[in-house]
């Protein structure tokens, strides 16, 4: 597994995802199985909407269980080693868009962090995130927009995420 394949999580996010996996693997799985059994007892399965809905929910739940198990198995808790003024996973970054002189502050982190963060979260694998990784306060970085144009930003501040 390369460093790019690692998902960095805060301890809070890791614990939350572990709890979700536990709940989906036990209580929710048992509840869905019971609903399938009850719907099956109603008879004709071809026209049994409750049965089909429960089976669909079962498929989604099992897919999420696999996703969570894989994520937690390959995740690392904490942040990668980086200097205090260096942009890296798990850091709060303030940038200025050079063309517009507008500032923006966000967490460079995973979508799992975004679910409960009180700040905007950008992925380290996004074009902006990739351009900023390793940059230091005062540095400029250019990345490609979806329309093919280039956008330049300047790193104003980098700080540890305490969320």
Outline the structure in words.
The protein is 41% helix and 23% strand. It is of the alpha/beta class. The strands form two sheets. The chain has a five-stranded mixed beta sheet. A two-stranded parallel ribbon has the order 1-2. Helix 1 (11-41) packs antiparallel against helix 2 (49-74).
Topology readout:
Elements: E1 7-9, H1 11-41, H2 49-74, E2 75-77, E3 91-97, E4 102-108, H3 111-114, E5 121-122, H4 127-132, E6 140-144, E7 150-160
Parallel strand pairs: 1-2, 4-5
Antiparallel strand pairs: 3-4, 3-7, 6-7
Helix pairs in contact: 1-2
Keywords:
4 helices; 7 strands; 41% helix; Helix Hairpins; Chitinase A, domain 3; single chain; five-stranded mixed β-sheet; 2 domains; alpha/beta; two-stranded parallel ribbon; 163 residues
Task: State the helical fraction.
Answer: 40-55%
What structural class should be given to the helix and strand makeup?
alpha/beta
- The top level CATH class name of the largest domain: Mainly Alpha
CATH superfamily of the largest domain: Transcription elongation factor, GreA/GreB, N-terminal domain
Report the span from N to C terminus.
27 Å
Number of H/I helices: 4
SS strand fraction: 15-25%
């Amino acid at each position: 597994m390369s460093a790019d394949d690692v998902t960095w999580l805060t301890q809070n996010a890791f614990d939350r995802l572990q709890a979700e996996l536990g709940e989906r693997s036990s209580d929710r799985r048992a509840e869905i199985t019971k609903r399938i059994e009850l719907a099956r007892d109603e008879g004709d399965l071809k026209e049994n909407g409750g049965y089909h809905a429960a089976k669909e929910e079962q498929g989604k739940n099992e897919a999420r269980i696999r996703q969570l198990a894989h994520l937690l198995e390959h995740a690392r808790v904490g942040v990668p080693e980086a200097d205090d003024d260096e942009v890296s996973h798990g850091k709060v970054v303030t940038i200025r868009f050079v063309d517009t002189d507008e500032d923006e502050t966000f967490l460079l982190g995973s979508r799992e962090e975004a679910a409960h963060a009180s700040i905007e979260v950008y992925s380290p694998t996004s074009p902006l995130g990739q351009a900023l990784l390793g940059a230091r306060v005062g540095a400029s970085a250019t990345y490609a927009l979806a329309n093919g144009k280039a956008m330049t930003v300047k790193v104003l501040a980098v700080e540890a995420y305490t969320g």
